[in-house]
From TrEMBL:
Similarity comment: Belongs to the tubulin family.
Keywords from the UniProt entry: GTP-binding, Microtubule, Nucleotide-binding
GO cellular component: microtubule
Domain Tubulin/FtsZ GTPase: 63-252
Biological processes annotated in GO: microtubule-based process
Keyword Glycoprotein: no
Annotated signal sequence range: none
Lineage, uppermost ranks: Eukaryota, Sar, Stramenopiles, Ochrophyta, Bolidophyceae
Listed name of the protein: Tubulin/FtsZ GTPase domain-containing protein
Amino acid sequence: MREIVTIQVGQCGNQIGRSFWSRALHEHAANSHYADFGGGEGGEGRTGAVFSESMSTFFRNVDMTTKGEMAPGSEIRDLKARACLIDMEDGVLSETMRGPLKDLFTSAQVMSDVSGAGNNWAHGFYEYGNQYGDQFLELVRSQAEPCDSLQSFFLMHSLGGGTGSGLGTKLLEGCNIRNSSVLACGVFVRGKGIPISDVNSNVARLQSELRMPRWNREGFKIGLCEVPGLDHQSSIMSLCNSEIINSVFVPLSERFYKLYRRKANVHHYTQFCDGGIFDEAIGNLENLIEEYKAVGGRGEVEGRGGEIAAARGRAHLGRQRVFKQAEGVGVLDLGCGMYCVIYV
C-alpha cells in the first residue's frame, strides 16, 4: 500500500478538506467494485463494496467489532480518513464533526483551541506553535504508524490569517519535509483509452519548448489513470515548480517594505516574537528569489528584472536601518522551510 496523511490547518484548510473528502468519497463510490464475501445467514453470500488498494491511500477500513484495520480486498466496514484536523477555534471543526462527513473522523484526529489566532501570524507560529507542537507530532504519529508505506503529507492551509499561515508553517517544520528539486514538472492524465505513447509525445513537445535547467532536462513525472473523474471523461493536471513564482515574490517584497517603513502594528507581533524576525524573513525571501534565478539559468525573470533589482536594493537598505515599533505590517515568514508552490 502507498498511504498519504492529510493535515488540515485553520478555517481555510479545513473547508478545503471538507470539499476534498466529499469528492474522494463520491469518486470511489462511483468506481467501487463489489464481491461476494459469504458468511450470511442460511449459507447465503453477503455482497458488499470492496476496500481497494487505491482507497487505502487516503482511507483506513476499520472493523467495527474488533476496531482493527482491514487489508485491501476486504469488504468495506467503517471508513476512516487518514487525516489530522487542526484549528485554533472550533467553529469549522464543529461543523465538520456534526456534518455529513462526521463518520470519517474521530475525536482523536482533532486538535483545537477556543480563542483563535486573530489573523496574527506571530500568534499562530510562536504562541500556538510552541504550545501545541508536541501534541501535533503525537497526532501525526498516530496517523502515520498504521501506514505500511507512508509516501507523503498533504498540508491544506492558507498563506494568510493566523492559524493557517502561522501555525501551518510551524507544523510544516515538524513534518520534516525535504526541499524538492526545483523546476520540475508533473503531468497527470485521467481517462479511458488514452495511449501512453500520446502522453509521452506531448511531454516531449513540452520539454522542447520549456526552459529546463541543464542538470534536470528530464525533470518530468508522468502519471496515467484509466479511471475518469466525475465530471469529465478525460482530464489532465500539471504541477510545476517554476522560477515564474518570482513574479509573486518580488511584488511581495516591495509591499512588505511599504508597510514596514510605516512601522504599523509591529507591537502586535513583538508580543510573541523578537522584532528581528522581520529582517530574517525578508532576507530569506531575497535568497529564495536569487535561488530561483540561479537555478533557472537566467539573470532575471523576464519582464521583471528592474523590479527584482529594486527590491534587492531596498532589502539591503532595510537590514541596515534600525526600525522602531509602530503600526501595520504584513509578514510572510520564509525562514521555516515553507517553499511550496502548486500550479494547477
